[in-house]
Protein backbone atom coordinates (compact mmCIF):
# COMPACT_ATOMS: atom_id res chain seq x y z
CA UNK A 1 0.00 0.00 0.00
CA UNK A 2 1.27 3.46 -0.86
CA UNK A 3 1.82 6.33 1.58
CA UNK A 4 -1.37 8.39 1.38
CA UNK A 5 -0.73 11.16 3.87
CA UNK A 6 2.15 13.03 5.37
CA UNK A 7 0.10 13.29 8.57
CA UNK A 8 0.05 9.63 9.55
CA UNK A 9 1.96 6.49 8.63
CA UNK A 10 -0.94 4.10 9.20
CA UNK A 11 -4.27 4.71 7.52
CA UNK A 12 -7.19 5.26 9.90
CA UNK A 13 -9.71 2.38 10.02
CA UNK A 14 -12.36 4.49 8.26
CA UNK A 15 -10.00 5.02 5.31
CA UNK A 16 -9.17 1.32 5.16
CA UNK A 17 -12.92 0.56 5.17
CA UNK A 18 -13.47 3.10 2.38
CA UNK A 19 -10.74 1.53 0.23
CA UNK A 20 -12.20 -1.92 0.83
CA UNK A 21 -15.71 -0.70 -0.05
CA UNK A 22 -14.64 1.11 -3.23
CA UNK A 23 -13.05 -2.09 -4.47
CA UNK A 24 -16.24 -4.15 -4.11
CA UNK A 25 -18.02 -5.34 -7.22
CA UNK A 26 -21.25 -3.53 -6.19
CA UNK A 27 -19.47 -0.19 -5.95
CA UNK A 28 -17.61 -0.72 -9.24
CA UNK A 29 -20.80 -1.75 -10.99
CA UNK A 30 -22.54 1.43 -9.76
CA UNK A 31 -19.77 3.45 -11.44
CA UNK A 32 -19.77 1.26 -14.57
CA UNK A 33 -16.15 0.29 -13.88
CA UNK A 34 -14.79 -3.11 -14.91
CA UNK A 35 -14.91 -5.56 -12.01
CA UNK A 36 -11.19 -6.35 -12.25
CA UNK A 37 -10.15 -2.68 -11.98
CA UNK A 38 -8.54 -1.76 -8.66
CA UNK A 39 -9.77 1.63 -7.47
CA UNK A 40 -6.85 3.97 -6.70
CA UNK A 41 -4.39 1.73 -8.53
CA UNK A 42 -3.26 4.61 -10.74
CA UNK A 43 -2.22 6.86 -7.83
CA UNK A 44 1.55 6.24 -8.25
CA UNK A 45 1.33 6.99 -11.98
CA UNK A 46 -0.65 10.21 -11.42
CA UNK A 47 1.73 11.31 -8.65
CA UNK A 48 4.72 10.64 -10.90
CA UNK A 49 3.16 12.57 -13.79
CA UNK A 50 2.42 15.56 -11.52
CA UNK A 51 5.78 15.52 -9.73
CA UNK A 52 7.56 17.28 -12.60
CA UNK A 53 5.09 20.17 -12.44
CA UNK A 54 5.48 20.53 -8.68
CA UNK A 55 8.74 22.45 -9.10
CA UNK A 56 7.77 24.34 -12.28
CA UNK A 57 7.51 28.12 -11.97
CA UNK A 58 4.22 29.12 -13.61
CA UNK A 59 4.25 32.77 -12.47
CA UNK A 60 4.68 34.25 -15.95
CA UNK A 61 1.97 32.01 -17.44
CA UNK A 62 -0.42 32.80 -14.60
CA UNK A 63 0.09 36.57 -14.84
CA UNK A 64 -0.29 36.46 -18.63
CA UNK A 65 -3.49 34.43 -18.42
CA UNK A 66 -4.98 36.78 -15.81
CA UNK A 67 -4.52 39.69 -18.22
CA UNK A 68 -7.11 38.12 -20.54
CA UNK A 69 -9.49 36.08 -18.40
CA UNK A 70 -11.34 36.10 -15.11
CA UNK A 71 -10.57 32.97 -13.13
CA UNK A 72 -11.89 30.87 -10.31
CA UNK A 73 -8.82 29.19 -8.85
CA UNK A 74 -9.56 26.18 -6.71
CA UNK A 75 -6.55 25.33 -4.60
CA UNK A 76 -7.52 21.86 -3.46
CA UNK A 77 -4.56 19.66 -2.82
CA UNK A 78 -3.67 16.74 -5.02
CA UNK A 79 -2.31 14.98 -1.97
CA UNK A 80 -0.68 15.88 1.32
CA UNK A 81 2.62 14.95 -0.31
CA UNK A 82 1.95 17.33 -3.21
CA UNK A 83 0.28 20.33 -1.54
CA UNK A 84 -0.30 23.57 -3.37
CA UNK A 85 2.70 25.11 -1.61
CA UNK A 86 3.62 27.38 -4.48
CA UNK A 87 0.10 28.75 -4.80
CA UNK A 88 0.57 31.58 -2.29
CA UNK A 89 3.83 32.49 -3.96
CA UNK A 90 2.17 32.58 -7.39
CA UNK A 91 -0.78 34.68 -6.21
CA UNK A 92 1.20 37.07 -4.00
CA UNK A 93 1.73 39.43 -6.94
CA UNK A 94 -1.98 39.70 -7.74
CA UNK A 95 -3.76 42.91 -6.81
CA UNK A 96 -6.22 42.16 -4.05
CA UNK A 97 -9.64 43.75 -4.41
CA UNK A 98 -10.42 42.74 -0.84
CA UNK A 99 -9.83 39.91 1.50
CA UNK A 100 -13.32 38.88 2.40
CA UNK A 101 -12.39 35.87 4.43
CA UNK A 102 -15.83 34.55 3.60
CA UNK A 103 -16.56 30.89 3.91
CA UNK A 104 -18.37 28.74 1.38
CA UNK A 105 -20.37 25.87 2.79
CA UNK A 106 -21.51 22.74 1.06
CA UNK A 107 -25.09 21.56 0.99
CA UNK A 108 -24.45 19.57 4.14
CA UNK A 109 -23.26 22.69 6.00
CA UNK A 110 -19.69 21.46 6.31
CA UNK A 111 -16.92 24.00 5.80
CA UNK A 112 -15.96 24.09 2.16
CA UNK A 113 -13.44 26.83 1.52
CA UNK A 114 -11.81 30.11 2.41
CA UNK A 115 -12.28 32.77 -0.27
CA UNK A 116 -9.94 35.58 -1.27
CA UNK A 117 -10.86 37.96 -4.07
CA UNK A 118 -8.20 39.51 -6.28
CA UNK A 119 -8.51 41.71 -9.34
CA UNK A 120 -9.56 39.30 -12.06
CA UNK A 121 -10.02 36.17 -9.97
CA UNK A 122 -11.37 34.53 -6.86
CA UNK A 123 -9.20 32.11 -4.95
CA UNK A 124 -11.06 29.33 -3.20
Key features?
single chain; alpha+beta; two-stranded antiparallel sheet; 15% strand; elongated; Serine carboxypeptidase
Task: Walk me through the structure.
With 124 residues, the chain is an alpha+beta fold. It has a domain of 67 residues. The protein contains five helices and six strands; from the N terminus they run H-H-H-H-E-H-E-E-E-E-E. The strands form two sheets. Strands 1-6-5-2 form a four-stranded mixed beta sheet, with no helix packed on it. About 10% of the residues have low confidence.
Strand content: 15-25%
Spans where pLDDT lies below 50 across 5 or more residues = 97-108
Radius of gyration, Cα only, in angstroms?
19 Å
Largest sheet, in brief, is:
4 strands, mixed
- SSE sequence, one letter per element: HHHHEHEEEEE
Strand order of the largest sheet: 1-6-5-2
What is the tally of beta strands? 6
- Which structural class do the helices and strands define? alpha+beta
DSSP helical segment count: 5
The overall pLDDT average reads 67
Q: Which percent range fits the helix content?
A: 25-40%
What is the approximate shape?
Answer: elongated
Distance between the termini: 32 Å
Organism: Ixodes ricinus
Protein name: Serine carboxypeptidase
Topology summary:
Blueprint: H1 13-22, H2 25-30, H3 43-54, H4 59-66, E1 71-73, H5 87-91, E2 96-98, E3 103-105, E4 111-114, E5 116-118, E6 121-123
Protein name: Serine carboxypeptidase
Amino acid sequence: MFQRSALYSVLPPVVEAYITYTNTSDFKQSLHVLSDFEIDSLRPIVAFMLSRDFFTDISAKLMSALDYQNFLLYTGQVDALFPSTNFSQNTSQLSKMDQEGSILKGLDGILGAHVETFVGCRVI
